[in-house]
Design a protein that fits this description.
With about 270 residues, this protein is α/β, with parallel strands linked by helices. Helix content is about 35%, strand content about 10%.
Length: about 270
């Protein structure tokens, strides 16, 4: 379940990895549903997943409580708010599990745990409240080779006409950022994953172009947006990506970059 009217790449990656494991998935956009609770109950899911940013938690907690009036379907909440406020969130009524950090392996392991009759007690990255006690499981190492992950699957968004009309396609090329800016979540997230692998990870240009080509088929797309925290930290990567992109994709793209990385070298690449 999500509420914001945009693609959520955390959800899209989870969708892809769950489908690769043979697990059926669906999505409900609360802001596009007449009655989200009714539609979720009608679908009879074995697990409900929610990705929450800070500011949305009140909406989702109220929604969860309404769902729990009609069904005891287990609920797991992930996303930024869950990552940084797990201890408080897991004590809220109706919240069964909170996922801290990246959840690709966590969601698969949780599904397996529930299917085997367990309670997620053996699943990394989970926080839960049991017998008046907060249980925080160990963090799993980061997936360092993010090229090994399946392409994020956004197909279930297209059941809504709103998303069928999109002319801008988002894509993620990098995870993490090497800087510790005070206004950004990355500094705190690094402490969560300290000693658990390389924090800044970049996909290869080949994989990025392959994903774009796959998703551009029969889509009315006029531009691309890179949903990265930052690009341009590796000049060789930037050069390879821009040269391939200009030849094989050629659409305008938008991204975020630090001012001190925008030098003559990078400007010449971005203009290609």
């Amino acid at each position: 379940i999500q509420n914001i009217l945009s693609y959520n790449f955390g959800i899209a990656y989870l969708n892809a990895i769950l489908k690769s494991e043979g697990i059926q998935t669906d999505i409900f956009i609360a802001s596009l549903e007449k009655d989200t609770v009714r539609e979720v109950i009608r679908a009879k899911p074995d697990l409900i997943g929610i990705s929450c940013v800070t500011g949305e938690q009140i909406f989702y907690l109220e929604l969860i409580r309404e769902i729990k009036k009609y069904s005891n379907i287990p609920v797991v909440i992930g996303g930024p708010h869950a990552t940084y406020h797990a201890a408080d969130l897991c004590k809220e009524n109706g919240v069964d599990y909170v996922c801290i950090g990246e959840g690709e392996q966590t969601i698969v392991d949780l599904c397996r745990s529930l299917a085997s009759g367990k309670d997620g007690e053996d699943v990394h990255n989970l926080c839960m409240f049991r017998n008046n006690e907060i249980i925080k499981n160990p963090m799993a190492p980061l997936v360092e080779n993010i090229d090994s992950l399946p392409f994020p699957d956004i197909d279930f968004y297209f059941k809504y006409p709103f998303f069928q009309k999109y002319t801008e396609m988002p894509i993620v090329t990098t995870r993490g950022c090497p800087w510790d800016c005070g206004f950004c979540y990355n500094a705190q997230k690094k402490t969560i994953y300290k000693g658990l692998g390389k924090y800044v990870r970049m996909r290869t240009p080949e994989k990025i172009i392959a994903e774009l080509k796959e998703r551009l088929v029969n889509k009315n797309i006029k531009s691309i947006i890179l949903w990265d925290d930052i690009i341009g930290i590796n000049k060789k990567w930037m050069e390879d990506f821009c040269e391939r992109y200009a030849v094989e994709i050629g659409l305008p793209f938008f991204s975020s970059i630090r001012a001190d990385l925008v030098n003559d070298y990078n400007l010449s690449l971005l203009k290609k």
